[in-house]
Amino acid sequence: MDTKHPLLAVDCVVFDQAGRLLLIRRKNPPFQGRYALPGGFVEYGETTEQAAARELREETNVQAAGLSLVGVYSDPGRDPRGHVVSIAYLVAAGPCDARAGSDASEAAFIAGWRDEALAFDHNRIVADAVALMKQ
Amino acid sequence: MDTKHPLLAVDCVVFDQAGRLLLIRRKNPPFQGRYALPGGFVEYGETTEQAAARELREETNVQAAGLSLVGVYSDPGRDPRGHVVSIAYLVAAGPCDARAGSDASEAAFIAGWRDEALAFDHNRIVADAVALMKQ
Fold first, then answer.
1. Which of B4, B41, B48 sits opposite A44 (nearest CB)?
2. Whose CA, among A2, A26, B56, B71, lies 20 to 30 Å from B8?
3. Could you report the predicted ipTM of this complex, rounded to two decimals?
4. How many angstroms away from the CA of A76 is the closest CA of chain B?
C-alpha cells in the first residue's frame, strides 16, 4: 500500500473590468511576502469549484460568479512543501471590494501584475488564463 | 489539522480511427464487470499526464502519443469508495493492439460504446471528450 499521495489545491485568476489582477500577499512560507493567486487546498467532500469559491471568499472577500477551467498544474516540483496538484480557474466576479482574509496580509486588484514574480508557478497559470480569455 | 483529503485519479478517453472507444472491463468492485475508461490513481511525484500514460499502458498496452485536458470531475459522490477527483484526458494513441493488463479482465476498442452504462461518471466524461473533439 502506498500511503503518500499528491495533495489537491485550487487557484483563482480574477481580473476586474480595468484589467487588474486579484492578488494576495503571502503571509506565510513558502514564498512569504510574495504576491500569489488566491487559492488553497481542496477539502474532503467539496468539489474543486466549491473549493475555489470558498478560498476566494476567505482570502479576499470576493464572490465567485462563474468559473472556467484554465488547467491542471501537477509538476511535483511546483510547491517546495511537497507534491501539490493545482486546478486553476478563471473566475468571473461581481462588483466587489477585495480585502485580505486570514491567510493573506493583503488582497487587492493589482494593475502592475505583469511585472510581478508571483509565488509558485502562478505566472504560468495567469498566462494560460489570459490565453483562454482570448479564445 | 484535517487528515482526510480527496484522492486524485486520471481517466483516459481513447478513440481509434474507426470511432471505437477503448474500454476495460472492471475486474474488481466498485462497478465490477462493467466497462470503464482506463485510468487510476496518481502517484506521488508523477504529473497527471504521466499518470494517465502509465495507467493506459498498464491497463491496455496502449501508448499515449498526445494528451488534451477534457475536464476535472470532483463530485464527492462520483466514486462509492470515497472522494476521488479525476482529471480526464483525451488521448491520441499510435497504432496499437489493446490487451488487458493486471487491473482489467478485458481491454478493447468497443464500437457500441454509446449503448454502454459505464462505471462511475465515465459516460459524462466521454460526452465531454466528444464535445471537445468537435471544437
1. B4
2. A26
3. 0.92
4. 5
